[in-house]
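In practice, a research group might receive sequence data for several interacting partners and want a quick structural hypothesis before committing to experiments. The following worked case mirrors that situation: the sequences arrive first, and a predicted assembly follows.
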Amino acid sequence: MNNEKIKILLIDDEEEFASTLAERLELRGYVAKIAKGGESGISLIAHESFDIVLLDLMMPGLNGLDTLKQIKIINKHLPVILLTGHGSVQGGTEGMRIGAFDFLMKPLDIKKLIKKIQLAINNE
Amino acid sequence: MYRKIMNRILFGKRQVHDHYTVLKRNIIIIMLLITIIPLTTMIIINYFQYRSHLRNQIMAPLYAMAEKTRHSFELFLDQRLAIIRFISTAYSFKELGDKQNIEKILISLKKECCGFVDIGLINSEGDLISYAGPYTLLGKNYSEQISFQETQIKGQYISNVFLGHRKYPHIVIAVQHLKDDGQTWILKATIDTDFFDILISSMGLARQTDTFLVNKDGILQTNSIYYGNTLQKCSIEIPLNSFKSSSVERTDSSNRDIIVVTSPFSIADYILVIVQPHSVAMESWYALKTEMIIIFLISLTIILFAILKMTDVLIKRIKTSDENRETALAELQHAQKLSSIGRLAAGVAHEINNPLAIINQKAGLMEDLIDLSKNFDKKAKFTELTGSILKSVERCRKITHRLLGFSKRIDVKIEPINVNNVITEVFEFLEKDILYRRIDICMNLSDSLKIIQSDHGQIEQMLLNLLTNAFAAIKDLGMVGVETANNKDGGIRIKIKDNGCGIPKNIIKNIYDPFFSTKKEKGTGLGLSITYGIIKKLGGNISVESTQGEGSLFIVDLPEKSDETESADE
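A structural hypothesis for the assembly, expressed as tokens:
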């Protein structure tokens, strides 16, 4: 699949992190959009189409898992990769049970992330 | 000094005066005192009571026998006196003065009554005027003799024993007769004392018992078995001035303890003496005494044995329970240490993780930009610098992740769990690693595994940690085995086995300590610490068996139901 066509939604409250990651993804030919919280992320998904969502688990307001549930209601087939600063796999496995494709721990290794994105897209 | 001696006695050898030795000694002393004092008191009281009681029981028959025998003697003597008195009444002075008559009377006496030897008539002046018998005494004057004077005063007389002309012991009996004209005469007779011996032998005395007569001077009147012959001085001291039957205890010349019972005669100056050795008289008492002592010693031995044994068991139990308490306390302290370290670590890790993620992305972006830009001065140097930043971030990341995992503040959610399913899930999670490293997984999950009440997430984390460790321990193509089974107490057991490098013996007790790691920069030293914390939180137990070079076996026991209150403090 051509990278230029892949649209990524990045939902994370940490702006510095999200903007830098978005820039790096764009450098790799992806289209990356940022949402600062669960609610704005969900509204973006409702109005635009994305190929994949990168979702932070620890967010103020609507948290990652609840956002994931909402996303799955809107679009069951939209692949979601969870990002967590949390050291445990608890949130990750819980998310995967709900329907997330996979989860990665912060700080991220960009190569791993790209690999997972590719896997998720190819899976679709 | 006393304590030292007591300890020597009780414990055999010199020991360190630890708490238990002192306790043991005190218990033994107290128990000995409270058992032996009443026992000894009882034995002593019984001893004296039985002794006085038995003494009375033993003395009564001796007294009775003495009285009876004395009575027989008196009866015999009384009879002889009565016969002489009868003769003095039946015959006149004149008739008795006739030699033929008096010899006829002696013949009749000898025929009818045994013991008579001679008979004689003495006038008021003391001259023997008529006599029948073996001696030539006719004409002898008795007025100066005690026997004559005493007969004149008392009307009758019984002499002490003397040896007659054939060297046989004899006694003289005499009665006074008062004539109508106021004149008196005396009729005297000699009797041999054979009958005394007959009387004594008819008493049927116990063995070693001696019976004899003595006069008021302590001179033997009959033969004694142990204390001399007739007319010898008796070799034991006898109370001579008593007027009624009495008893004394003496030691005789052959050193025997003896009981002497005396009964004085009323009609003569004789004393009947019965001598019985203590050993015979108190035989039953000695038997009883021996029995009492044996019973006392046996009881003492049993008590002593029981006390020593009981105290030993007691002290051992106390010691074990003390040790258990100390172990529990140490475990609690360890758990608290882990918990407080965990809280501190979590706070730090949480705060650091986010900036770390940003540094990571910024450095990553720098790297990307450098990669994309054309060659410029020091491009290689910049690439190296960003690489170094990213590497350091990676190291920090590992640490913060582990720290967070170590002290997760997630509420424990107790729900029914099939651990087999959790294991399967964890393996799905590790699937890629297994495939990539071609690890041989050997699953042996019990089909009938009990559903336990526990926390899904915690068990998952715990299994993930143990399996990650196992994977780290083995080389590629190694083997990891997982086994589940039901425990007897209602809980379950999980065994995780690998054939990896194993754990050296000297560090096996440190493996659960936080920040203890053998992997150097690769590990954080928190994995097993977290695992340990989780298992303890769930009320379970973990143990490890490991041989260096052959592999390790971790055994996790989880209870049927995890206690929620236990985990509430986390």
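Before designing any experiment, note the following. The interface with chain A takes residues 349-350, 353-354, 356-362, 364-365, 368-369, 372, 393-394, 397, 400-406, 408, 410, 425, 429, 457, 460-461, 464 of chain B (CB under 8 Å). The first strand of chain B starts at residue 116 and ends at 122.
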